[in-house]
Amino acid sequence: MAKKLYHGAAYYPELWDEKTILTDIRLMKETGINVVRIGEFAWSKMEPIEGEIDLTFFRQIISLLNENGIEVIMCTPTATPPIWMSDNHPERMYVDADGRTMIHGSRQHICTNNPYFRKRAAILTNELAKALGDMPGVIGWQLDNEFKCHVAECMCATCKEQWHKWLEHRYHNVEQLNDAWGTDIWSEYYHHFEQVPQPGPVPFLHNSSLKTMYQLFSTEAIAEFAEEQAAIIREHSQLPITHNSTIMFAVDNERLFQNLDFASFDTYAPAASYFSYLFNCDLWRNLKKGKDFWIMETSPSYSASLESYATPHPKGYLKAEAVASYALGGAGFCYWLWRQQRAGCEQPHGSVISAWGKPTVGYEEVLETEKARIAIEPFITSTRPLQAEVAITYSDRAKIFLNTEPHKGLHYKELITDIYKHTLAAGIHRDLLPEGAELSGYKLLLTPFVPYLSDDYINRAKAFVEQGGVWIVGPMTGGRTEHHTIHTDAALGKLEELAGMETAFTFPIENTGSVGEAYGLTARLGLWSAVFDGKDAKVIGTIKGGLVCGKAFLTEKQLGKGKLVMLGSLPTGEEGSKMLTEMIHTYAREAGVLADIKATEGTIVAPREQDGRKYWIVVNMDGKGGSVTVPQAVRDCITQENIPAGEWKLGKYDYRVLQSI
């Protein structure tokens, strides 16, 4: 892709007449839109009758956009198969966990594992790549749209057959499966793979291994579908390929992006949840390390459907979102959508232009965002984001384990976001890393809420610690095997020997009167907890009251040049928040984590560099303004003013681009 910052929108020219399309292009140029994403829902436009593919319309649209300086991300339209694919073919349709078969309409109604769907999707993708892949103005590809957004694991007959093959490939023989899953429980023993059911309706709950493995099977299958499409495109086009995902969908994003070229995501976090927005930027930056990510969808003001709507953004927030994303490693900032749809289930959704062609409530904010893009583009395109010194492991596999074992409503996204918020509030620049990421260059690693830790992960983290890093493990980490069973050698398996402690008990500690004491602070303890006997580890946090008074919930042990810290229980409430923040501060200091520029909570500092020279993009995200402290004089790249060392104020949703002098 060209070395520029993209400001774009999803566009659906197949819904509009020629006059409206020409008006839209004129307005895009006036607004500063320099890229559009097209084609993602247009299968029936491309192939209205089975076998009759005509891409003339899209060739004309791409040419027209290119003539007007607007580039294109071309999409495969496989999220919305046409009626000829669905009609009278229930065997091709998605079947949910309750056994209900979907009908035509909405989207994602067909099973993506169905062989006929795969065949027709491959044919259309091949034709798209041949016809459009080398057209001037096309700069990249998006596969499908939001895999597993509205659906999760399919329970159709095709999936059942493929499930059995997947199990055989994984376990080789059924005896190994029986042993790994402990199927003597409740007479669940299987004599051959074809007897293993899908996790459909049952009177109580499924075996944890069955439910977790079926989710893993499903995420692997959708990743393979993405790779199949990508391979077809690459036969005819050298352009980079992505998919627009989120952490909310039933996918494993690390696996999904493994063989794609760049990462992109959709986000509709409201302004009050700006931390969720930043969470995505810090994760997607690291799903394809060293490559710019894209935001393929965000609302210019609010999201809505026939059944819901969100609060519109306050004035100034959209600009802050865009600057933060570019600063944190983004190259594209795109809206859903350009022109409001006049029909369908998302008619009320926020857009840049209304269905009747007038500016919407978010239009002025889009113009302000374009001004900011132009102002920061020279500095963003000539620099690269600096790797953080603090890393938090993010795991979609952990999300799957907690889907199977949610206890009283535990939700992985909420749990991991809370830890992220404490790191953010501490003013620490951070990376969210997938499980397989390299750890070199980091000083502090947090691994919360990951029930199963692979031997590979433990070995890499151990080496990280021995070389001088600090590794904070927990809470709720390491207590399950890869088959979603409980360890039989020690509660937390191999971690315990490494950490020099022993787990005395695991149990739900909240509402038992248990209070944790650490760093001179006290806080109630919560969640499903592991409590420790110190043994060879130093006890940092002790439990007072409740059922296990005197046991430890926080320990540390020197390992090589670094430390392994075990957090067995979650401090809760306002006091718990203070304790977590103090824990992160303490170990960040011990690990030698440094912040060149400090900002108050609600304002972020995104460091970048060029040929050894540092830059910092400072953005206020909470709308309250903030203060920034610089240890030495810096230069404001936009105003060309020198800012002396010390503290200075930043306005509501304001931003600065600073350069070392």
Automatic annotation (TrEMBL):
Pfam family for this entry, one: Glyco_hydro_42C
Glycoside hydrolase family 42 N-terminal domain ranges (all copies): 11-371
List of residues binding Zn(2+): 111, 154, 156, 159
Swiss-Prot/TrEMBL keywords: Glycosidase, Hydrolase, Metal-binding, Zinc
InterPro entries: Beta_galactosidase_C (IPR013739), Beta_galactosidase_Trimer (IPR013738), Class_I_gatase-like (IPR029062), GH (IPR017853), Glyco_hydro_42 (IPR003476), Glyco_hydro_42_N (IPR013529), Glyco_hydro_b (IPR013780)
GO cellular component terms given for this protein: beta-galactosidase complex
Domain of life where this protein originates: Bacteria
Binding of substrate, residues: 107, 145
EC code(s) of this entry: 3.2.1.23
Residue span, Beta-galactosidase trimerisation domain: 388-593
Enzyme type, top EC level: hydrolase
Catalytic activity: Hydrolysis of terminal non-reducing beta-D-galactose residues in beta-D-galactosides
Catalytic residues in the record: 146, 297
Any one of the GO BP annotations: galactose metabolic process
Gene Ontology terms for molecular function: beta-galactosidase activity; metal ion binding
Record domain Beta-galactosidase C-terminal: where: 602-659
Family: Belongs to the glycosyl hydrolase 42 family.
Protein name per its UniProtKB record: Beta-galactosidase
